[in-house]
Amino acid sequence: MKTTSLNHNRRARELDQIANGEQVDLLVVGGGVTGTGAALDAASRGLSVCLIDAHDLAFGTSRWSSKLVHGGLRYLAKGDVGLAYESAAERGILMTTVAPHLTRALPQLIPVYRNQNLALAGLIAGDVLRRVARTRTSLLPAPRKIPAAEALALAPGLRRHGLNAGLLSFDGQLTDDARLVVALARTAAGFGAKVLTKVRATKLSRHGADARDEVTGATFAIRAKAVVNATGVWAGELADVKLRPSRGTHLVLAAESVGIRETALTVPIPGETNRFALLLPQDDGRLYLGLTDEPVTGPIPDVPEVPESDLDFLLEVASSVLSVPLHRNDVLGAFAGLRPLVDQPGRSADLSRHHAVLTSPDGVVTVVGGKLTTYRRMAEDAVDATGLTGRPSTTRTIPLVGAADRKTLSAMDIPRRLTARYGNEAGRVAALATLDADLAAPVADGSQVTAAEVVWAVRNEGALDADDVLDRRTRIGLVPADRVKAESAVSDLVRRSLAGLAES
Question: Rounded distance, CA 18 to CA 16, Å?
Fold first, then answer.
């Protein structure tokens, strides 16, 4: 295998090869979870691969998720047993083999203020799926009904008045969705894939693409035997595909001030049968409150804005079960992502989350729809559709860069925050700080992110500028005030790290 490190030097070398006419078996357009998953799937089957993205890894929808590895309970409630089982099976694969270092079991609590027998029945049915998918109870315990006192101990911020009990269940949670994408891209690079960010496809055809280097402005053709369009909500700009984008909004809150620390809250949305708002604790002391499911029309922006109506809706729903109502001044930040749903009749919230693999008359394969949890199946189906190889996919057995079992990671004499983000590479990140004491310092007052992590992102994770680090490799940018405090230091570190690469 090749090195898994992505950086400016490797990009320059491999971009030069592609721009000068080197043909690859497969060109993947789109550096989100599906595109990087397809690059890994194809490269691990022995195909030569080039992946390009107009911006950066995880620039689009893949970084705006709820960070859940969802077992498919919602789909089961809608009667879609097939999709529910697929989600449960893929959750197990991701949490046990592919990325155990980036995932954990997340306790989720439904507060019961009135009869929730239907919800309990749904949780039990979801646990049947877990068992059928052969995910161990030691990883994801079975759901159970708990008394009100235990519910309050798990979530002190709950409204006590009228609380009868709680329904406790477990699902999977990612440390960070963007880090999953970076790990997929680096693992694909280890199998020989060329991963080129800031390269925009301006036109696709059966045999490749016209492209532009967004750094220099240079234009060139990419030659390939097959093309997969994995650009998500932007797929229609490169292929004849009709989508119904749906906006999912999350708010960023301080977990301590809300009284929600380790256990997530699942809050039924009034007037809806199978829709819930989620209060999701993160390992940095923050809390994500989401999520909406609203149709979006018109041009697709690079970064979706969060409308005031979404803020009001989420704050109102969450406040219905909290002892202290939430207000605008509790919101530290907000983000929204657009789901690339296949166009069908009905409300956005009711549209199928099945993925679709479509082949245009000129032979370009486009993959849309689906969910983050099922990215691996989407990628596999997309590569199969190209007809490039008869070899079966093996990605269900391929651990990503940094993967190690939880026992091994917990035994490492490294801060848990680092092992949760870097897995068995955490020691190498920490070692940077031992070689240079300045790199041990945080990038800003109150930040957990160290200078060493910025240097690591530039040297090994393909970060080419400060935005790549702030908004995707570290997620400092999710809170605007934090971004402002860290921007100068991060920009200087990126500049010096790139200069160091140029000299090497």
Answer: 6
pLDDT in tens, 61-91: 999 999 999 887 777 767 778 888 899 999 9
Q: Cα(218)–Cα(417) distance, rounded to whole angstroms?
A: 40
- Rounded CA-CA distance 29/202 in Å is 11
Place of tokens 């949670």: 173
How far is Cα of residue 431 from the mean position of the Cα atoms in its chain?
Answer: 27
Alpha-carbon distances, residue 351 vs 18, 75, 88, 342, 378 (angstroms) = 39, 11, 20, 8, 17
Q: Which two tokens stand for residue 318?
A: 């969450």
| Residues 491, 202, 242, 40, Cα dihedral to 10° | -60
Distance, in Å, from the CA atom of 105 to the CA atom of 95, rounded to the nearest integer, reads 9
Q: Which residue has the tokens 């035994």?
A: 411
SS3 238: coil
pTM: 0.96
Quick: pLDDT tens for 44-60.
999 999 999 999 999 99
Q: What Cα–Cα distance (Å) separates residue 208 from each residue in 216, 223, 232, 367, 381?
A: 21, 5, 18, 16, 20
Report yes or no: 196 and 11 within 8 Å, Cβ to Cβ: yes
Q: Which DSSP letter does residue 237 get?
A: G
- For residue range 98-111, what is the model confidence (pLDDT) as tens digits? 999 999 999 999 99
- Please give the full DSSP string across 33-44, using - where no structure is assigned: HHHHHHHHHHHH
Which residue in 255, 256, 249 sits closest to 277, CA to CA?
249
Nearest to 262 by CA among 153, 154, 103: 154
| Cα(323)–Cα(148) distance, integer angstroms | 14
* Beta-bridge mates of residue 253: 287
Residue closest to 369 by CA, chosen among 27, 80, 45: 80
